[in-house]
Design goal:
By secondary structure, this protein is an all-alpha fold. It is built from 13 helices and no strands.
Length: about 280
């Protein structure tokens, strides 16, 4: 029987990030600060789940253990919104904009503004929203598969995701739309999908969540998984992913360097992940 008692790779990655942030906040702003309490809750929840389910071998309980990583990921993703102000971290939009201008002359969000059209904004909003369908849909579908197959996706995604969140904390920034509002003569306009996308971004953003672009990083992680496990889905999502990545700059959410960093984060993570138990091999 497989050894289910030891922590899984994504649990270690998420746990180290949550614990590290909690200890840092505890020392810097005290135990009762809202940010400290948030991270304490994340640490307690994950530890409780792992301790309660570490010996469970039934598929149902193991899938519940996997699903708990999704809840932890959502909490960690939202953490920069409170952690950055709590720690007084410097916002780096000017640095990222400077890199774009050094490389390209101007950041793409500004360069593309004259070409904005309602129909194009609607299309780009659909592409941007496709990330959420892909991310959450792939996880939901995985939980309907055998445990070993589901675990391969969960471990890859939620071992990678904390690395992206660390980028948010090392280089906190708000993106062109928030940091460069005066650079745009008029707001982007579209239809129903544009309105839905605006609502999702306003209510789901971690505020300081541009570097690296998780829309690039995690889409690459998903495509890498699907290339091996779901070839048809990979072929279907590949052209969508191109539009998705273009939408991040057209909609003024990201600098070009954020996208390059997203690719870089993926290449480093994939290089590191390769030797771990993975596709087609027995899992511990």
């Amino acid at each position: 029987m497989a050894d289910v008692s030891r922590p899984w790779a994504h649990e270690v990655a998420q746990g180290l990030l949550a614990l590290g942030l909690w200890v840092t906040l505890l020392l810097r702003v005290g135990p009762l600060h809202p940010a400290t309490l948030l991270l304490a809750g994340v640490v307690a929840f994950q530890l409780g789940v792992v301790l309660a389910l570490r010996g469970a071998s039934s598929p149902l309980w193991r899938k519940l253990r996997l699903a708990s990583a999704y809840a932890v990921a959502l909490a960690l993703f939202s953490a920069p919104k409170v952690v950055v102000p709590a720690l007084g971290l410097t916002v780096r939009d000017e640095v990222l904009l400077g890199i774009d201008r050094a490389l390209l002359g101007e950041t793409p969000a500004v360069s593309l503004a004259p070409y904005a059209r309602p129909w194009l904004t609607e299309l780009m909003s659909a592409c941007y929203l496709s990330y959420h369908l892909y991310f959450h849909g792939a996880l939901a579908w995985a939980l309907l598969q055998p445990v070993e197959k589901a675990r391969r996706l969960f471990e890859w995604m939620f071992t990678a995701l904390p690395a992206g969140i660390i980028g948010y904390l090392l280089v906190p920034a708000r993106g062109p739309l928030a940091a460069m509002a005066s650079s745009f003569e008029s707001p982007l306009t579209g239809g129903a999908l544009t309105a839905v996308n605006d609502w999702v971004v306003r209510n789901g953003s971690a505020v300081y969540d541009v570097f690296p672009s998780l829309h690039v990083f995690m889409t690459c992680v998903l495509l890498d998984h699907d290339r091996r496990e779901h070839p048809l889905r990979f072929k279907g999502m590949l052209p969508v992913a191109v539009g998705l990545m273009a939408s991040t700059v057209y909609l003024r959410y990201h600098y070009a360097i954020d996208l390059l960093a997203g690719f870089g984060w993926f290449l480093v993570a994939r290089r590191w992940w390769s030797p771990l138990p993975s596709y087609g091999r027995p899992m511990p």
